Amino acid sequence: METWQLLEYAAWGVSALLGLFMVIDWLKTDTTYSEDVLTSSREGELEAMTEEHKI
Amino acid sequence: MANTDITSKEMDGMGPHGTVVGLLRVLGPAHVWALGVGIVLVGEYMGWNFAVGKGGAYAALIACWFAGILYTCVAMIDSEVTSTVAAAGGQYTQAKHIVGPLMAFNVGLYLTFAYTMLEAANAITAGYLISVVASMTGYAGELDQRPFIIMVIMFLAWLNYRGVLATLTFNLVITAIAFVAIIVLFLSTSGILGGGIMQHAALMEGHELPYGWIGVLAAMHFGLWYYLGIEGTTQAAEEVRSPARALPFGTLAGIMTLLIAATLTWYVCSGILPWEYLGDGVDGAVAPLFSAAQLSGSNALVWLLGIGTLFATLASANGCINDASRAWFAMGRDKYLPGWFGAVHPKYRTPYRSIIFLVPIALIFALGAPLDQVITFSILSGLLEYTFMPLNVILFRKKWPLNSIKRGYEHPFHPLPAIVLLCLCGITFFAVFLGYGTQLIAMIGFYIVVSLWFHFWRYRFVNRGTQFTMPWPKPQGY
Fold first, then answer.
1. If exposure means fewest CB atoms within 10 Å of the residue's CB, which of A41, B103, B255, B416 is most exposed?
2. Nearest-CA distance from B355 to chain A in Å?
C-alpha cells in the first residue's frame, strides 16, 4: 500500500477521533453542569465592572 | 471536569450581570492581528488573480488599491465602534445597540454565512493543495481529497473547542510564516537580493487595460479578495484583555499588513506571470504566488511558498471557525436564535455548542457545493455587511457624539470614510451584479425571507430588556 493511501486512512481516523472527542466532551459537559450555569454568560461584564469601580 | 467548582456557593459569579461561566479574556493585540490577517491572507495566495482575468493586470492593481481604501474605511470604523461595544458578535452586537433588532439579526446571519462559507472554501482548497503535494511527491493515483478536507475542519474545530488562546496563538505563528514568505519571495525575485526576474514592461505592453474601464469595474469584485475578512477582528472583542487598546491596534496593524502584502503580491505575480495565465484561476495560476516561486527556479522558494499557501489556508479556516461561532453564540445568548447556543464551556471557556453546530454545515458546503458558488456567497454576505457599516457609524456618532462616551479609538475625517465606504460598496454591488447577478438577487431574496420570519415569529423570543448591557447614557434625541 502506498504512503498516500495510508495517509488517506490516517486522515479519516484522525477526523473520527477529533469528532468523537468533541461529541463525548459536549455530552459530558451538558450532563455535569446545569443549563443555568452553562448559559449564564452576559455581555458587557467588563464595562459594568469598570462602571462599578467608578462608583 | 473543571479544576475549580464554578458552581460553588463561595463563588458569587464572574461579573455583576450574573455571568458564572463566560468567555476568557486572554488575548492581546497580536492575537487580534492574527485573527484579522489570518482570515484574509489566503486571498493573496489565491483568488485575487481572477481580477486580472476580468480586466488585466493594471485593473487588478486599481481594484487592489480601491478595495484597499474600502477596507481601510472598514478597519477605521470598526476600530472606533468595537472598541466601545466590546462584546462577542462584533458587528451583530454593534447593530443591536445602534440600529435595531432586525438589522442585528441580518448582520448576525451575514457574519455566520460569510465565515462558514469561507471556512468551507478554505477546506476545499486545503484538500486540493494536499493533492498537489501528493502528485509532486510522485503519487501516481488519484488522491481522495475528502478525508483531508474533513480532517482540516475537524482539527480546527477541535482546536477552537479547546480554547481561544491556543487557537489564535496557532494562527499567529502560521500567519506570520505565510506573510514572511511573501516578503522573501519579493526580495528574492525583485533584484534586491540576487538577480531580479521581473518583466513588467514586456508582459504588460499592449495589454494595459484589455477590456477598458468596464474591466476595471468588473475587477472590483475580486479586488475584495485581497482584504475580505479583516473586519473579523471584532469577534475577539469579548476575549481580549484590553478591548479599547487591543482592538484598534490589532485591526489597524492588520489592514496595514494587508495593504503591503496585497501590493507586493500584485507586483511579484504580474511581473513574472503573463496576465492571461495569471487571470485564469481555474486552468492557469490557481495559486499565483506559488506559480511565481516555481518560475524563480529556486527549490527553497517553491517549498516556502507551498508551505505559505497551506498555512494561509489553514489560518483562514481557523479564524473563520472562531468568528462564525462567536456571532452564532452572541445571537443565541440574546435569544435571536435558540438560547441553547449561548452556552460557554466551563473548562475551556469557549462557545462550544456553536462551534459543534457549525461543523456539519461547513462539511456539507465543503463536500457538496462548487468552490466558486461557496466563495460568491461568502463575498456577497460580506458586502452586505460592509454596506451596513457606514450607516451604523453615522448613527453611532449621531446618537452618541464624541463627548458622550469614551472611545478606544476615534476615526478621523468623519463622515468622509463612511461616505467613501458607501460609494465603494455601491460600485462593488454593480461589479458583482455584472458577474453574479442571479446569485446576488437570490441571496437578497433569502435575507428578505428570513427577515420576515424574524419579524413575525422569532422576535417574540428575544431578550428585549436584557440584551442592552452597555452602561451608556441615553442616545441624543431620545
1. B416
2. 10
Least confident among B146-150, B271-275, B450-454, B471-475? B471-475
Task: State the complex-level ipTM.
Answer: 0.89
- Which chain B residues are within 8 Å of A4, Cβ to Cβ? 134, 137, 139, 141, 143
Amino acid at B339: G
Query: What distance in Å separates the CA atoms of residue B34 and residue B50, rounded to the nearest whole number?
Result: 25
Asked if the Cβ–Cβ distance from A41 to B339 is below 8 Å, we say: no
Burial class (CB in 10 A: 0-12, 13-18, 19+), B177: middle
Please provide the average confidence, as pLDDT, over all residues in chain B: 90
Alpha-carbon span B133 to B297, nearest angstrom: 18
Of B143, B157, B339, the CB nearest to A22: B157
Q: How far apart are CA B42 and CA B312, in angstroms?
A: 5
Tens of pLDDT, residue by residue over B270-299, are 999 999 999 988 888 889 999 999 999 899
Q: Does B333 touch chain A (CB under 8 A)?
A: yes
Where do runs of H (alpha helix) occur along B137-274?
Answer: 146-162, 164-189, 200-204, 212-223, 243-272
Which CATH number among 1.20.1740.10, 1.10.443.10, 1.10.10.10, 1.10.8.60 corresponds to the domain B32-461? 1.20.1740.10
From B21, B147, B330, residue closest to A37, measured CB to CB: B21
How far apart, in whole angstroms, are the C-alpha atoms of residue B24 and residue B345? 10
Q: Contact at 8 Å (CB) between B163 and B349?
A: yes
Largest Cα–Cα separation, chain B: 77
Q: What's the CA gap between B216 and B446, in Å, rounded?
A: 29
Domain range annotation of chain B: 32-461
Lowest-pLDDT choice from A9-23, B3-17, B90-104, B161-175: B3-17
- Between residues B464 and B267, the one the model is more confident about: B267
B292-296, B323-327, B406-410, range with the lowest pLDDT = B406-410
